Each structure stands twice: as C-alpha cells, then as structure tokens.
Amino acid sequence: MRLTLRTLLAWLDDKLPPVQVREIGKQVAVSPLAQELVQRIHRVTRQRRLTVPPRTGNEATDPNLVASYLDNDLNAEQVAEYEKKCLVSDVNLAEAASVHQILSLLGQKVQVPHEAKLRMYGLVKGREARRPLVAEIPEPSPAPAPTSQPAASWMVQPPARRDWLERFGPAAACLGVLALLCWSAYESLKSDGARDADVVAAVPPKAGGAEDGSTPAVDPVAKKAPEPAPVAPSAPEVAAADAAPAEPEPEPEPEPAKAEAEKKAAPERVPVPAGSSAVVARLEGMLLRYDDEAREWVRAHEKDGVRAGDRLMTPPTSTARLDGPDGALDLLDETEVRVLDDAPDDGPNVELVRGRLLAEPSSAPLPLHVTFQGMTVDMTRPADLAVGLESTRRWTYGVAEPAEPALTIHVGPGGELAMKTVKSAEKVKGPATVRLDAAGAVTPVKGYAPGWLTGPESSAESTARREKFLKEFAEDRPVLADVVSATESADPDVKADAVATLRALGDLSLLTPILERPEDPAARRAAIAAIREELASGEAASRRAWDQLELDLGSADRARLGKLLLGYTAEDATPAAIEDLVESLSSREPSPGLRELAIDNLRRLTGRDAPAYDPDEPEQGYAAWRKLQEDGALKPAAKK
C-alpha cells in the first residue's frame, strides 16, 4: 500500500484493516520523513493559535475540495496538489488532520458508561411520581371598597417626609465650616506665639542685666565658674591671622563599625538544592529548560535547581547565572548548554552547544570542564580570573558546506589559564584570546577583547526590548505556543526575537510557513536569517535543516530555495542566472519568500539598491528591474 498523507491520516486514526496497519507501520518505521510528518501532525492539531485557511491567497482552499479529498474522490493530480499544499502550510495540514479525526470519531459508536446511564435515569421520575390533578377552587373575591369615601380636596394631607440629607445637611455644613475656622484661627495664633518665643530666645541678654533695669532671673542650677578672659593678640599677629587663609577643620574619621556598614554588601550565594549540580541564582529575562517527559521547553525560575543532563537555553536579550559549589557561570543571550555529570575534581562540567559562556572570577583556583563538538577541554584557572567561551557561526554567501564551528576562549587579565585536551596542553596568559578548532589545534587571535568578559552587558535599549518580549509569555501557556504567537506581533523587535527563539528551540518546521507569510516582510527576513544561521551551524545542524526543507517543500522547491538561501557567488553571476533572478521577482512566482530571496541575491550580485521592490506588491518593481535587464544594465558588481 502506498504511503500518502491520506493513508497516513487513516493509519493515525485507526481506520485501516489490520493488514494495512502493519504495512503502513513498517513504512513509517523506516522513513525519517514520515516520522517527522507524524510528529508535525500531532503538533499542529494541538496548536490553539492556528485558524481556518483564508479565503484568498496561497493557503486558500475550497471546502468542497477538502471534503472530496477526505472521501477519496479526487484524481491523482488534484490529490498531489492538495497534499503538497498541506505539507507547506500548517493551517491546511491541521484542517485536513482535524477533520479526518472528527469524521473518524463520528463513525464510531459512542460508549456510554453504565454509571452515567444510572445517573441520568435518576434525574427523571416515572408516572408514579406525578401529582394527581385536583381542580382548584377559586378563592372568593374581596368585597368592593365602599364608594362613600371623603373627597380628597376636603382632607388634610400629611406633610411629606424629607430626606435626612435635606433635613440635617445644611446644619452639618455650617458646623463643619465653623470648626474649620476655629482650627485655622488656633493654628495661626499658635504659630505667632512660637515665632515670638524663638525671637526672644535668639536675642542674647546684656551683661548688666535686662534693658529695663530689672534684675535677671537666677537659674536654680549652680552656675559654672567664669572662664578666664582670653588674652588679646597683638597687632602683628592679628594682621597675620587676617592675611592667612583659614585652614579647614579636619573631618572626623568614621568609626570602624560605620565604615564596615557603608561598604557594599557582597551578594549572598544562593544555596544549591539537594541532588542538584547548580542553582539559577540570577535571571534577567527568561531561561528555558527542556523537559524530557513532556518533550517540550518549559520556563525555569530563580532558585530552581539544575541537575545533570538538563538542557538550558537563553532567548535573545536574556541572561542567566548558575551558581554551583565551585564557581558561577553566566549564560549570555542566545546560549544553549547541557549540564554534564559532576567531574572527579568537582569543577563545573557543561557542554556548550552554541552561544557565549562566562566563568566569573573566584576567590580560589578552580577547575572548569567544557565539552564542545564532542571534545572536552579541561581548564585550571587561578583566583580572580575571568574566562569566556564563545561558539557562534555566521552564514557566508555561497558557502554550501561550512566548516565545523570552533571554540573561542577569552582569558581575562591577571592570571594564566592552563588548558588540556586529548591532543594537546597549552597555557595562555591573559589578557589573550585563542581559538580551538575541531581537530584540537590552538590558534591565537589578536585584537579581539569582548566587552562581556567583565560581565553580562546591559543597556536601557536591551532592557526595554527584553521587557517587550517577555510580555508575550504567560506562565499558564506552553512556551512554544507563545513564541509562535509572538511571531505575529506588530513590534518588529518582538517578531525578530520570536523567530530567533524558534530557531533556538530546534523546530524548523515552524519557520518555513513564515517564509510564505504575506504582508509581513520583517517576519520573512527574520526567518531567512534564522534558516541561514542554522545551515551554517555545522554538518549535523545543516543536515537537519535540509531534511526539514525537503519535507516541507519537496525536492524540487527545496533545491531552488536552497540555492537562494546559500546565495549566489560572483562566479554564479552569469547572464542566465541574473535573468532567472529577475523572472523570480514577477507575480507569476507564487511564493513571497522566494521573491524576498530573489531580490536579496539580485541586489548583492549587481551591487544595486535601486529600483525599489516590494515582494508583496511586485508588479511595479518587477517592471523596473526587467527593463534594466533588457537594457543590459544589470551586470555583476566589481570585486572589492
């Protein structure tokens, strides 16, 4: 039996005979692409953010076509076209899988538990529970009121009762105003009396007594003995004293206790929980941890324990600090590490997958073990020495097979770092930077001293950007769902960070639909940059990216998209290649992502930024580029 999307859906929903179930199961077991498609079907049917396909555009579908596909009423060409659309678009794939699952459930007999039947039977009583109908005897109507009532005009009406606010409000207001005036007068008199007393106290008494000749009052406390009168200085001494500037009085030295209190207290180390290798001591932004049981990324919080085997990842603009018994490690933004088992010498032992890692200075010599690309580097660093480790790859135009990423080690000033690998042993005196390749060779790097070696860099701009990105997440929602939702944010910074986080999470199947998103050039460019960075992240990552592109787009579109993603080099800038790129700018190309890549390569090959081109409205820009191509004005740019 041929393995297609419809047979795969029937196999997942248990709608095939036992013989065909075994046959399809064997085909799925030997096909990695089919296994990834099964995982993708499970994922898209659980996503709450996906909506129905639009009425217009590349993802638009006719509901009758979907129904005919599920009923197996389409011909082979229509089936292939619709299945290709489902493989490209998560929206169409989710619609087909969900509708097929619903139809499968509707065709099955519903099993109602016996307890539910008993409860429902108990809610309704039988005929014996009905009350007998008894004819109701109407009550006699009351006797009519006597008509001989006195005329209202001859009766004295009682006075209408006034509201309590109307009766007592004016009096209460008058009393309040009177109390306010009394208090104001009392305060003014009190302040005048206090001021007079201050003036009297400030005037010194005369030597002979009071001005009016009265005898001054005698203090009941015994008077001190009069001090001897100071000797008047001579005239030269007075002149010298007037001429010399007055020396400032020395300030009193602070007491030792006060000096110690004024010192900035050192931050207390967060205790490591029992059974953990480290603890999340400080968190600026968000730290993600991979849950092996749930098979998804979850958020980690401050004071959470980190165990051996945990995978940790910091999204863009986020940093985290891990405290362990033997030192602290800072995970800078866009960094992924895996905590390994404790080393024999009790030093930190981690695997740097990608990003930047900072080992903070310590008060005593400590070991450090870092594994990268299967190679372990054992380091011994002295006290007060910072060590930075960096593994970042940058995509290069036209490089189809990038070299394996290297490990860059930055040694701070104030010490010598001892490094040891299986093949070599080196000592690097700081400040210095060396690069360790996959073969274990150490190469010095000159003129490169990163600013983050003294600590995670922070600015008002990065803090504001981080706060905007964090507002897209909630504790009660899955991280992946919030990241996918953030790719549709109106803020371009949030959108770019969300796309970069999707690439860091390792699910490239969510990036290819962003390439086809209309009216969203910022998201498309961010997705292109993320896929290119993944293609440049080593052989294993590049192979996973190519397999995902082939699964989502097919072999033909994958080859064409792959060439545009890798980029055209100067040797590829033939007239035929330029003509093909110009033709890809037209509206006949249905993919806005391919049009985006085509204009990017065309501008790089020709060195032209004009004329302007909008992939979402390609007609006018395509006509301008086409005219340049026909006039022979599009030529390869000169090599620099």
Give the key terms.
640 residues; alpha+beta; Jelly Rolls; 19 helices; 15% strand
What does this structure look like?
A hairpin with a 4-residue loop joins β2 (287-291) and β3 (296-300). The two termini are 58 Å apart. Mean pLDDT is 80; it is low at 199-266. α5 (76-88) packs across α6 (90-106). This protein folds into 4 domains: 5-106, no CATH class; 278-453, Jelly Rolls, CATH 2.60.120; 465-567, no CATH class; 568-640, no CATH class. The chain has a 17-stranded mixed beta sheet that branches. By secondary structure, it is α+β, with helices and mostly antiparallel strands. The longest helix is centred in the first third of the chain and has 39 residues, at 164-202. Helices cover 40% and strands 15% of the residues.
Short description:
The protein is an alpha+beta fold and 640 residues long. 40% of the residues lie in helices and 15% in strands.
Q: Helical residue percent?
A: 40-55%
Q: What are the segments in which pLDDT stays under 50 over at least 5 consecutive residues?
A: 199-266
Cα(first) to Cα(last) distance is 58 Å
Shape: extended
At CATH level 3, the topology of the largest domain is Jelly Rolls
> What is the number of helices?
19
- In terms of DSSP E residues, the strand content is 5-15%
- CATH A-level architecture of the largest domain: Sandwich
Q: Mind telling me the C-alpha Rg?
A: 42 Å
Number of strands: 17
Report mean pLDDT, rounded to a whole number. 80
The class by helix and strand makeup works out as alpha+beta
Q: Would you state the CATH class of the largest domain? A: Mainly Beta
Biggest sheet features: 17 strands, mixed
How many structural units, i.e. domains? 4
